[in-house]
Design goal:
The chain has eleven helices and twelve strands. With 354 residues, it is of the alpha/beta class. Helix 5 links the parallel strand 3 and strand 4. The termini are far apart. It binds 4'-deoxy-4'-aminopyridoxal-5'-phosphate. The site of 4'-deoxy-4'-aminopyridoxal-5'-phosphate has 12 residues, from helix 4.
Amino acid sequence: MSRFLSERYSAIEPYTPGEQPKNRNLIKLNTNESPFLPSPNVIKALNETEISRLNLYSDPDTREVISAIAETLGVNENQIMMGNGSDEILAFAFEAFCDKEHEPCFADITYGFYPVFCELFNLEPEIIPLKDDLSIEPSDYFNKNKPVFIANPNAPTSLALSLPQIEEILIHNRDNIVLIDEAYVDFGADSAISLIGKYPNLIISRTFSKSRNLAGARLGFAVSNPDIIADMLKMKFSFNPYNINRLSIIAGKEAMLDAEYFEKCVNSIKETRGYISAEMRKRGFAVPESKTNFIFAKHNILSGTDYYNKLREKNILVRHFDKERIRDYVRITIGSREQADALLNATDEILKGC
Ligand code: PMP
């Protein structure tokens, strides 16, 4: 730290992203990326003509990608805004809607960026423990009278609330923001998009990083009522009006419109997830029923730290959180079928030594 850093940021512990190793021979199952290439239409569209336009600023209104999302999800364009990843959408929401009179609340085990935003924006969140089985109890979120942040499906637990459960939470929170972080929703959970018209305090954040195979493009978006979108746009235009670069706007549009490729990729992930979950259970792991592109697995003998370290020695990278309640688990991204088999073979070797 230099002596110039503002006092108000000196104590912040920044978010630690999953490792992006240089060694390309590693089997990388640690950051919930897609194992599949972007849609062929994305690859085709990012041509020399588009690259040569990089001397010009991008469209601050990101119209092309917004119109593709509006068409695909059946919402109006003024109900959508784009973020540089959904991380930026979340940042704008914490910034715009939380303060000393509106401290946020969220689960004890959830996306690790929420507490970081609280530190950044000087907020003191109310932390709501998950149940013993790591699921969310909807009634714990009733009548909060403060902004509610819920990842659905939740990460890293991989578990989801149903649409009626989400609606119950909304019925009991009419006068505060409810943000549902749907980063993983395409892998089998119910989206709350259909509730947008009914609950004007609902914000949904989504990402292109997982089910649209575009983690490197940094594209996320919010869907909400136009007034809330206008508030969040105020944050964006006070911070970085050109937050989405030219190439990502095009990539996002093409990925959103290629429904066939999207479905093919998501179905393949779901199939591999079923396979790997069943095989892991045979090997003594507890694997909750995942609605995401990862599983959260705990072995009956092998500790989470040991399993993580031993996989790493075998060039397989997964994610381990050294955190109370989940120390015994590892989070494993669902990659290709070949990667799943490599993981299972490595696991067999590790278990032989136990
Ligand atoms: N929400 C959740 C629950 C996540 O796990 C992630 C991925 N790390 C994000 C949001 C942010 O993803 P991105 O910024 O790539 O859209």
